[in-house]
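Hi,

Apologies if this is the wrong queue. I'm a grad student, and the batch job for Probable GTP-binding protein EngB from Novosphingobium umbonatum produced an output file that my downstream script rejects. I'm not sure whether the problem is my script or the file. Here is the sequence I used:
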Amino acid sequence: MTEEEATQQALMERARKLFSGRVDFLLSAPALKFLPDPVVPEVAFAGRSNVGKSSLLNAITGRKSLARTSVTPGRTQELNFFEVGGISGELPDFRLVDMPGYGYAKAPPKVVEQWKKLVREFLRGRVVLKRTLVLIDSRHGVKPPDLEMMEMLDGAAVGYRLVLTKADKVKASELAEVHAKVIAEARKHSAAYPEVMITSSETGLGIAEIRAAVLGDAEV
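Support response: The file is valid. Your script probably expects a header line. Output copied below for reference.
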């Protein structure tokens, strides 16, 4: 095992232990004035409506219903904060932020604009935001709403990772093709990591790696 591999294994084990401990819902913020005080690092999760964001958050934290999943796309219309680590009543190690789903065509234009404003202002002004994970559906690849989100992150100079979800829903050959295309797209964006992670909340593929990445990002 190389030194780099040993370091990654140690990080994955620390992340496993951390996420098996305290993970609590803190609050929902429909507007910036409701945000919690920026006193600990934060890692945000973004993605199109129905990309599997809630399922991934539940898989990462080992909870069945920490983040509510819904058959109705576009349900999450606010920023939801979860505290990870630490002792209840004291500051956590960091927070996870579940951002509003985007790209839902049936959402009223006024609601869409409200989401965009909330997300844009959050990204530009949140000094403790260490990283954003942008989730991409393996069945569809990068779509125009994803590009819009990526450009928003580029503009806000917020580093982000692209993460493929629902990898179990496509054939291996199709997954490899989508993965290559998403990597190529990532290289066009100034704030994107060149590496694209592959996950499945159903099979557990990539979950340990995502946990480690979140912990590493929070500690940067």
